[in-house]
Amino acid sequence: MFKAGFGQVFVLGALLVVVLGVGIYDLQSRLARSEDQKTQPVQEKPKENLIKMSDDAYDTAELTISKGDTVTFENIGAKQRWPASNIHPSHNIYPEFDPKKKIAPGEKWSFKFDQPGIWKFHDHLKPSILGVITVSAEGGSASGGKGEAQPVKIETKKSLPKPSADISAEFSKANIMTALKDEPEMRYWLEKVGPKKIMEKLLADTGGGSVVDCHQESHTVGRLAYQIYGSIAFKDGNASCHSGYYHGAIEQLLKEKGTANLSKVINDVCESFATQFGKFECLHGVGHGVLAYDDYDMPKAIKTCQLLKDAYSVSSCYGGMFMENIITAQGSGGSKDHETKWATHDPHFPCNGIDQSFDVQYQCYQMQTSWMLSLFNYNFDRVEEECFKARTDLIEVCFKSYGRDAAGHTLRNPFKIKDLCAKVPDVQNYYYICIVGATNVIIDFWGDGLSTQATELCRILPETGKRSCYTTLASRLTDLFNEKERRQLICDGFEADYKNLCATN
Length: 505
Known about the structure:
four-stranded mixed sheet; 7 strands; globular
């Protein structure tokens, strides 16, 4: 049996103290670390979310994430895919959200969302494949776009130019398609002649979009016009080239102001105009953009328009939305980029397939004869028959739409308008309503070259139509002109028996 001496016992005791001390210290350290870990916030890695892309759909069409999260798109189909931000085909609302290339089968593409907001997206190669990603800020809700939610301020950034004869002559020689490929050059011309002149030349140089598809180009014009002029861009554009101008303008608006506080943005965008007609044109243009932004989902776009602050704004937005739908269905401008399911061979669709409230129906039928004419190869007799098949309280507005199309189809020629409205039976004021619809179109296109066109229509009408024509013209003058002198100049052209209609203006 082994026996330890005094020295050995002392050494062993010392070692035991050391070991015990180290153990106690280690235990205390581990406990301290444990407590530390409890009190310190855990640094979580940003979530990585997966969206699988088949040949016909996204497996997750709606996704809510936090700012800083990454979303990975995986192509599990047999065809190439291309997810990208709205609006097709330019992707400018969130331009960074775009791989800028096709994603091959079996490949992935990831994107980190640093901007809070509601980001609608589509497949660039098949735009009918849709989705939406809501990105919440740190506080838990989606903000307006650039970090925290910002107060929305919409203003006219710059006044429209009045081009000199020399500038106009120089512009007439410019190659608009070449200029559109050079952003500084296009900005130069926009600042020198304004958006309206640019669009007129684009239409002329592309055969109205029938020779060359001008949709993408008009997107560029609208985008740059909003950058330069702000809200006035919506007033100074038009719906040609498949409404690309309005699409580009609303893209830039939402890019600058954000997407989550959409109701505030839309409510404020047209408030800078001095005249009611200016506001109407602006709201109408916004309506075009809203339907495109909402991926041609008409019920959804109706609800978006309903976010506007008053009945006038809502109805004006409806009008632009319904026109956008028809233009898309017609393939106006040769563009195949956008599709709508809200147009069929039924001459009364989509009116008979959506919200049946009078306000919605009124605006739908105020545009619907344009679709009827497309179906009937511009046979106005057939359209007249269909108007009588509309809901009883909508027959009148159908004939107002008929008059609008009569003016548009004839390029506002007073004599041709007179002949087409003469086809409408003089019952229940339908003939008068046709004249009202036509007169409104002439007014809507008002310019220096149209100073007598409206009064000329009134002059050549039979007595039964004169009063409707003059009354409509007189009532709209305050929409057009703030200056009393300008209104008086038009009133002076009225026939003697109708001059009194202008007395209160």
